Amino acid sequence: MKLGLTEHVDCAHFLPGHPKCGQIHGHTYKVEVVIEGEASGGMVLDFADLRAGIRSVLQRYDHRNWNDFLDYPSVENICERLCRDLKERLRFPFTIRVYEGAGKWAEM
Ligand SMILES: [Zn+2]
């Protein structure tokens, strides 16, 4: 069974050398995480535990500048970073999808 949760994080970034995104600006990044596991006793995982795990990762970056963490903070690289961080927290296989604005996303 799959279990999903959506969180948000507000960050600044700029893409060095990019004609449009080279100026510093901000996004509210929507982050969707879907874990997969057996529903034992009626639950795969308590939503509160899943939310706590995701928030513990996102809080490192909330209201910060992605460029302080990544050389080229494209949504692809942000997704990769969050995926790596979440692997340390989640004991289930999962997919993560990060939206940079409406309708634009990267997934791993
Ligand atoms: Zn941007």
The count of helical stretches stands at 2
Largest sheet: 5 strands, mixed
Spatial strand order of the main sheet: 3-1-2-4-5
Helix % is 10-25%
Shape: elongated
End-to-end Cα distance: 18 Å
Rg, Cα atoms, Å:
15 Å
Q: What series of H and E elements makes up the topology?
A: EEHEHEE
Structural class: alpha+beta
Number of strands: 5
Mean pLDDT, nearest integer?
A: 97
Which stretches are poorly predicted, pLDDT < 50 over at least 5 residues?
A: none
β content, as a range?
25-35%
Bound ligands, each once:
zinc ion
Write structural notes for this entry:
The protein has 108 residues and is α+β, with helices and mostly antiparallel strands. The protein contains two helices and five strands; from the N terminus they run ββαβαββ. The protein has helices spanning 47-58, 75-87, and strands spanning 2-13, 25-36, 64-65, 94-100, 105-107. It has a five-stranded mixed beta sheet with strand order 3-1-2-4-5. It is elongated, with a radius of gyration of 15 Å. The chain starts with a strand and ends with a strand. 22% of the residues are buried. Bound molecules: zinc ion. Residues 13, 21, 25, 27, 100 line the site of zinc ion (ZN). Residues 13, 21, 25, 27, 100 line the site of zinc ion.
Characteristic terms for this protein:
108 residues, alpha+beta, 23% helix, binds zinc ion
What order do the helices and strands come in, and which of them pair?
Layout: E1 2-13, E2 25-36, H1 47-58, E3 64-65, H2 75-87, E4 94-100, E5 105-107
Parallel strand pairs: 1-3
Antiparallel strand pairs: 1-2, 2-4, 4-5
The protein binds zinc ion.
Zinc ion is lined by residues 13, 21, 25, 27, 100.
